[in-house]
Specification:
The chain is of the alpha+beta class and about 525 residues long. Helix content is about 35%, strand content about 20%. The chain is built from 18 helices and 19 strands. α7 runs antiparallel to α13. The chain is globular. The relative contact order is 0.12.
Amino acid sequence: MQADVQTPTAGTAAPLKAAFAAIVGAEHVSDDPAQRALFSEDVWEASAHVAMLIVAPGSTQELSAVIAAANKAGVALAPRGGGMSYTSGYLPATDSSVTLDMRRMNRVVRISAEDMTVTVEAGCTWLALNEALAPHGVRTPFWGPMSGIYSTIGGGLSNLNAMFGAGHYGTSSESVIALTVVLGDGQILRTGARGPDGDTPFYRHYGPDLAGLFCGDAGTLGIKAEVTMRLMRTPAHEDSASFSFKSGESMLKALAEIARTGVAAETCAFDPGLTKIRMKRMSLMSDVKTLGAVVAKQKSLGKGLMAAAKIALGGRDFIEADDYPLHITAEGRSKEGVAADMATARAIVKQHDGTEIENTIAKVIRAMPFPAPNSMLGPEGESWVPVHGHVSLSNAPAMFADIQALFANMADRFATHKIHTGFLFTSMSTNAITIEPVFFWPHGYRPVHASMIEPAHLARLPLLPENPEATAVVTEAREAVKAIGARYGAAHFQIGRAYAYRDSRDDASKALLDTIKALVDPARQFNPGALGFDA
């Protein structure tokens, strides 16, 4: 339950509000109770604390001045991008915390098709970036998570991302050339080789990789202001396929081999539980917007209409209820190269007893890469939350089996509280598989959901009552999944306050982390408690 929203005391908030207003303009500083409450919850939970103020800087210089003012006032800062966190990653740590709303810093600063770089402000969304790059025939190698309609690039680098392009190029940080970061006292730090004027980054590796320090840092080491990423020519050819497996083990073994060969630009797989929920939610036959996107994606109207007709006729019955579907996309410079990659994938699937099915979902994913996040709620208005781990290719089947055994032991409790589970799987370059269990349970949605889900979709869903008993069981299950991940040495994105990062490091690593933290944020004001640093 959300803490009561109190009006900030004049002695604490008023002088700081005035200081911020002098920097960014009064219209970009808010102490509105409803807005403060919204910014003090994420998809998983509402904080026990409510932000004192919300400030939205509009440039690197404004961000620097805001941070310096907050440092002088001794208040904590909670940086927030698109607000898609489910790991308490941007929640205020105290009632005197200030939320940094980064969404005003949303410009695409510079596109250089000549140098193959793009620089954006940290509040730019992945959707906006891709729309800006499309006319130039280029894109970033990793080009966004499925939440890219809202997710920001700065937030993505703080938390790291999976999905589009990840099968070839890994996570978002692996496409970064340089960062401009504001430190705890307002100093501006710039990384990378930056050209003759010092402001046109073109290469990342000049000495120690300082940019890497601020990737995956959960907003604890510095606030990203500008990001320069490398570009590539948009592949001229792509193809997709979908496959079905009778067991999760065989699917994961096939996925691992597909990752090793590097033939898929991205992969996406589900278990039967998540398939049932997705099919209950989706109505591909009647979704004109979805079919229109598929048509537009094809190179000709005729091919587009054929693809859309195939999807409409296939409906939702192309996956057996108890199977594990795997969807892949291959891309490349030549039609022949893509065909060779797809042939390799099909041979791998056959070796692992998989069968090819209609590639409806694979086509829709590429045609609508950044859909509205209506899946943040279940088909009956249930709450939704994931937990995940990145595991080595060889250990993925065993880790999945352990999580399945956990869920089997909790099945009676899940049934009592009407908790449903599912799994999402994907691969990261040639090195890792992501296993992401998700939970749906009958607990009502909150303002953060209402702020992002399409109004027409939300209007069709009931507002369920709070359900603390079921939520407690989900919490227990998530913690148990994290413990299983720890046994396999799993890595995590979106660490926030959910995963035990710092405590999992060796003593030398912890000493180095603490030394860096003391240098870049000596007052410990950046996102206290995140990444495992003391709150």
